[in-house]
Design brief:
alpha/beta, Peroxisomal Thiolase, Chain A, domain 1, five-stranded mixed beta sheet, 10 helices, binds coenzyme A
């Protein structure tokens, strides 16, 4: 195989120390461990404290990544940061991370695609790498969801957590790496899942603050319905397109929003839970970080050539499935 493909060659993660448990949430809003475990499947989530931001988590993950792979900051030639919670409107969080790490020979930007941010970003950087012009790409994916979560709203505050990941993406000419993607975006979801305040439509004002418009709002039931059908449709289509049977597939790596969504998607794909990466119980929905955080934790169990399908669904709506073969 002489065609160039892009492969994930290393992953690191940063998880804040503070664990916000269901018991503690039960003191903040009218909820319980039993309700959250039954309806969502989350036990605890990490929360970033101390006035730190998304770029701090990304920079910590990326620092570990560069050390582990003996990569100098000068060797990085492109940086893409997938996040919904940039440090600020601008400069891009990618720029801030470059400054914190001393990356000087790269260019880059941020990509916002809600919970599909990671797969959209992985496909984007893959195209750069496949062009043959980029040798070492730093892909950052993470969110400080606690910054946009309303801790007086019991319907959203149990769901989200903070985390960041950093991945090295490099060219390969073997039969591994990113093979295919099937992505969609429709805009239907803007009614059901959004953060409306602070943009050009509703710039920050006393009114936007008093209406709590700087927090994430959703119609959970509608989001749930669309998430199950859309994520399952593209994942099943990807299996058909590449004639991958449930036995052939090593792992489904689903976005971690709700255990019931993950179960429904796995069932439609004909998979048993042993083939599904699930860590939602420990971290909740960390938005752009969920899929790479799963990959990071499963590295000891992954083998070169393993067939993986990544599937995500998020605000927009945005959704999609990717097919890749693990590279190391
Ligand atoms: C949010 C979500 C967990 C709610 O679960 P649900 O089974 O749909 O629950 P409903 O919204 O129908 O609410 C059922 C009842 O539980 C209550 N409830 C909601 N949150 C609760 C909580 N944290 N604790 C206790 N009760 C709660 C509701 O008020 C409602 O009470 P009512 O019947 O008296 O009105 C679920 O819809 C979901 O996960 N949706 C997808 C969200 C998502 O993934 N978003 C991110 C985008 S990827």
């Amino acid at each position: 195989m002489s065609e160039i493909r892009a492969a994930i060659t290393a992953i690191e993660a940063f998880l804040p120390e503070y664990r916000l448990t269901n018991q503690e949430l039960g003191k903040m809003v009218d909820t319980s461990d039993e309700w959250i475990m039954q309806r969502v499947g989350i036990k605890e989530r990490r929360i970033l404290k101390g006035g730190l931001a998304t770029s701090d988590m990304m920079a910590e993950a990326a620092k570990k990544l560069l050390e582990k792979t003996h990569t100098s900051p000068d060797e990085i030639d492109f940086v893409l940061a997938a996040t919904n919670t940039p440090d600020m409107w601008f400069p891009a969080t990618a720029c801030i991370v470059c400054d914190k790490l001393g990356i000087r020979n790269a260019w880059g930007y941020d990509l916002l695609a809600a919970c599909s941010g990671f797969i959209y970003a992985l496909e984007t950087v893959s195209k750069f790498v496949e062009s043959g012009r980029y040798r070492k790409v730093l892909l950052l994916a993470g969110d400080k969801m606690s910054a946009i979560t309303d801790y007086t709203d019991r319907t959203t505050c149990p769901l989200f957590g903070d985390a960041a990941t950093a991945l090295l993406i490099e060219p390969v000419t073997e039969d591994v790496g990113v093979i295919d993607h099937l992505f969609r975006v429709d805009g239907v979801g803007r009614r059901y899942l959004h953060l409306q305040g602070g943009g050009s439509l509703y710039p920050a004002s006393h009114d936007t603050i008093s209406k709590r418009m700087h927090y994430t709002h959703q119609d959970g039931k509608m989001v749930f319905k669309y998430a199950v059908s859309n994520m399952a449709d593209v994942a099943v289509e990807m299996m058909k397109r590449h004639q991958i049977s449930p036995d052939d597939l090593a792992w489904l790596v689903p976005h971690q929003a709700n255990l019931r969504i993950i179960d429904a998607v796995s069932r439609r794909m004909g998979l048993t839970t042993e083939k599904v990466m699930i860590n939602i119980e420990k971290y909740g929905n960390t938005t752009a970080a969920t899929i790479p955080l799963c990959l990071y934790e499963w590295i000891p169990r992954l083998k070169k050539g393993d067939k993986l399908i990544l599937a995500a669904f998020g605000g927009g709506f945005t959704w999609g499935a990717m097919y890749l073969k693990w590279a190391y």
